[in-house]
Design a protein that fits this description.
With about 500 residues, this protein is an alpha/beta fold. Helix content is about 40%, strand content about 20%. It has 15 helices and 19 strands. Helix 1 runs parallel beside helix 5 (about 130-145) and helix 3 (about 60-70) crosses helix 4.
Amino acid sequence: MTDDALTADVLVVGSGIAGLAAALAAARAGDEVTLATKATRPEGASSWWAQGGIAVSRDDPEQFKRDIVAASDGTADPDAVGVLVENANEAVEDVLLETLDVEFDQNGSGHDFTREAAHSEDRILHVDASTGKHVHVPFLNYLDGREDVEIRDDTAALELIRHEGRVHGAMLESDGAVEPCFAGSVVLATGGIGDLYPRTTNPENTTGDGVAMAALAGAEVEDMEYVQFHPTACVTEDGGDVAFLVSEAVRGEGGLLRNGEGERFMPDYHADAELAPRDVVARAVKSEREATGEVTLDVSPLDFAAEFPDLAQRCEEHDVDWTEGIPVAPAEHFLCGGVSVDDRGRTTLDRLYAVGECARTGVHGANRLASTSLLEGLVWGLRAGADAAGNDPDPIEAPDLLERDPDLPDRFASDKFHRLTRVMDEYVGVERDPDDLRRAMAVLRRLKGEVDAYVRTRTSRSLYELRNASVTALLVARHAAENDESVGTHNLVSDERDERREQMAD
């Protein structure tokens, strides 16, 4: 360690709403905060891409709790749900309204609350269908203006610095240079795992970094099998790439799902039809696409251009004629599990916290209720940041990340990623088969072994991202293989479902 090593009272890794909230709370408590993020501002963080909005309790918190538990297929932790709901209104009022002055959409009587799938009432604050960027940009700008917060963008955390069950900081990489940053506490807020799948609503570089770094350091992870797929990602003509996400609010306002034969099908799958929980809708869309060739979102029942001008513009940019229906397919959207934390974001390692999508708070259980991700990130970010404050950095000997072998071929990481995403898509997707999960684990174990061999002697961001992705993918497959119960987003293929598919195809 050198005398000029980076130090911070609190090191936050990640710049979505959860990381920003943690940084804000720690700074308010009097700490000096360093926020390191791989993202380039602002589009690189998942929060920027959030469309639907942020749910609040309004006047009936108990019903909000019931909706969260029902959407989770009865698996959400009631205590965690209580923490979320009971702190929702205060957190939104404090940070988003009073501190950031976010201008949520209004109607004649005040905030224009909307409704999304599995919500029993209108309780979602929104800014058109682009809420994320209208929260994220002012949040970043506000923290930029504070002298007690330093934001280092295009900076990746490669590995946690830990000793005897305590985390002392992280190794940071920026522009090829690697150096330790020692901190009194570390808050992981690294987002999701979109890069593990070929079709995702996440931004690039969502490689499960926080989950992998925490797991490799010895922290507990839970519920990794619960990967949520959003049912309505607009896809290209060949059904391959995601063009953009179509907010659940469109179905909340009356949009209808139709199969390749023009039939509305959701009433056959669930009593709430298009407003059923996401896992139900995603499986239905997948089945109908396989049986009839395509699924479109019919927006003719609403004044789409007037109610969702941002989405109408996205359709135009991607040559999608929304008057003929928007072609949609399920895409990886959100990890409901992650690093195991308590109600303050504390992990099982001393001085290590996790918030946002990389954390498993227990709120979502096996399936997340729409428009609760920004809220969870805000509430747990504030609680974790406040709890993390007050610890002095304690520099120790940093790990020696070696760089002694020749650089890898240019396509090494991309080729390995292609292999990983193909396995995850085929075997660990919307529906899973126990035999396929075992096959996936075998392939992913071999892949992780290959990557580990290179990491021992080479240090680069792309290689460590590949390592993190392989570790996280193996955790998802392993947890899925160990869970023999179909619940929420973890759905095991049954003989009955196979027969139904064949009948539909005929």
